[in-house]
Design a protein that fits this description.
Length: 517
């Protein structure tokens, strides 16, 4: 009898349930007027050939460009692809992205794969949370990015001056030697992010000077942590590219990175918890304190693990995205001297010379049109998050991608992932013109972008920190361009390799700079 029951159960799950689901989904697709999307074929079982291809691109530091090549090979802006036995949907279509992020927001959420992938290093936080947990995290973070908070640039000037300690022009020629700006921008942004978000800087720029801990001797030792954080996020990227097979990538080095990164976060949490009582007393006495995210979060929870997770999520955003924007901006400026010259002329006219700057404020940076066009164009070509995804929480559809021409709706089953590429979308020649892959800030003179331009995401989950990132990048760019009247790329023909993990930054920004003074 038990054997019969077991056989019937097996028959249900192996034969009857799949057949039922097939006809149910087919009926749903017809009801929603969906057609089958273009299919990317595999040459090896389970899409092993695709995984190998992406791993090879990863080793060449060319992941986003490889994805762009795949879209060009397929000749469509949306397609389906089977990986590891599961159907994955891919799109670079603005209307689909708008549906996923805004008009059909409740149909999609952060994929479980991403949550579990990030868990060992970052834990559960705003960038992996869904539902009430996400709403709570976002509500806690929103006050940090008020206009008043973003407009405070006095602290930023201190970090810029510490950056310039690492750039020493020759006294006679006034040219620097070969200088890699990329790592310097990462040091600057970790200092400003930790001070802005957590109330104190890790002083990474001072620690990186000859002599090491020449700043505050109580500062956390950033030098070892930087490598672990960078390596850890690269491992997260490698795991993420395996989609639901992410567990296959869990090397011992990644586990060590996680331990060190947790120790770094716990250092801040421990200090903040110790100060919590004193902060509450000061607040009760009416003493005005600058808003600090971690201090506010402690009012909601004193769970050190929860605090650590939120801290690491914000650190990833505050450090990596702005550093990437600065890196790509100067990577491009070094290869377009005419743009640099025009920008410098405008910045000097607007904000004065380096030694006598005037009125470099949030409002005036935002109103400096050509500077904003350059940042926009940099973000168009090199968005901080070039690849992203969502998972359907119900049977639904997307407006385009179905049928032989991709003009019909595309059916999405509950539990399926949709991968959308802002990097591909923002380089589509049918949207941006024949020069879509060229750096042309002037294109923004008469253009107002819609959903085809999405460097800060969109919809309810739009980046809260976008004005912070643009203001910091604008300020740092202004001060460096004021000081250096020329910038040249060491190798103008160098391929734009990506330091791509969860976010994108240039592999190197190797330049010569000429001081104006």
């Amino acid at each position: 009898m038990l054997a019969v029951i077991a056989g019937l159960i097996a028959l249900y799950f192996v034969v009857l349930r799949p057949v039922y689901d097939y006809f149910r989904h087919a009926a749903n697709a017809r009801r929603l007027h969906c057609e089958t999307p273009h299919t990317k074929t595999n040459s090896l079982p389970l899409g092993i050939d695709h995984i190998r291809r992406m791993n090879a691109a990863d080793k060449r530091d060319m992941i986003p460009d490889e994805v762009l090549t795949i879209y060009k090979e397929e000749g469509v802006s949306s397609f389906q692809h089977w990986l590891g036995g599961r159907r994955q949907l891919f799109t670079a279509e603005p209307r689909n992205v708008q549906a996923i992020l805004a008009t059909q927001f409740n149909d999609f959420e952060i994929p479980e794969n991403r949550q579990l992938n990030f868990l060992p290093m970052l834990g559960q936080g705003i960038f992996t949370a869904n539902g009430q947990l996400w709403s709570h995290s976002r509500a806690m973070l929103r006050p940090q990015f008020t206009r008043q908070q973003v407009a405070d640039l006095e602290i930023e000037e201190l970090h810029v001056q510490q950056l310039l300690m690492h750039i020493k022009p020759d006294q006679e020629s006034r040219w620097t030697g070969a200088t890699n700006l990329g790592p310097l921008f990462f040091q600057l942004t970790i200092d400003s992010a930790t001070e802005f978000l957590f109330g104190q800087s890790v002083q990474s720029q001072l620690q990186a000077l000859p002599g090491g801990m020449s700043g505050d001797h109580n500062a956390y030792n950033w030098r070892n942590l930087a490598q672990h954080f960078d390596d850890g996020t690269r491992h997260l990227g490698s795991r993420g590219r395996l989609v639901h097979l992410y567990r296959l990538h869990n090397p011992r080095e990644f586990q060590e990175d996680c331990r060190e990164v947790h120790a770094f976060a716990d250092h801040f949490v421990k200090q903040a918890l110790k100060r919590a009582d004193a902060e509450e007393k000061a607040e009760a006495s009416g003493e005005k304190k600058r808003y600090v995210f971690l201090h506010e979060l402690i009012k909601e929870t004193k769970d050190p693990i929860e605090l650590r997770c939120q801290l690491l999520h914000i650190l990833l955003a505050g450090r990596d995205t702005t550093a990437g924007l600065l890196g790509w901006t100067f990577f491009l400026l070094a290869r377009h001297p005419q743009v640099y010259s025009k920008l410098r002329k405008i910045l000097i006219e607007t904000f004065g010379e380096y030694d006598s700057p005037r009125d470099i404020t949030f409002e005036r940076l935002k109103g400096c049109v050509y500077l904003q066009h350059i940042l926009q164009e940099s973000l168009r070509l090199y968005p901080s998050v070039p690849l992203n995804s969502r998972m359907a929480v119900k049977d639904t559809s997307l407006p385009l991608g179905g049928g032989p021409h991709g003009t019909s709706p595309m059916y999405v089953r509950k539990g399926e992932e949709v991968h959308y590429s802002v990097y591909v979308m923002q380089r589509r020649k049918d949207i941006w013109g024949p020069d879509a892959e060229e750096f042309n800030p002037e294109r923004w003179t008469s253009r107002r972008a819609g959903w085809e331009y999405l460097p800060f995401n969109g919809g309810p989950r739009i980046c809260l920190g976008q004005q912070f990132a643009l203001t910091e990048a604008g300020y740092v760019t202004t001060r460096l361009v004021q000081l250096f009247d020329e910038i040249t790329a060491i190798d103008p023909t160098e391929v734009d390799k990506h330091q791509y993990s969860v976010t994108s930054a240039p592999k190197s920004v190797l330049v010569n700079l000429h001081s104006s003074k």
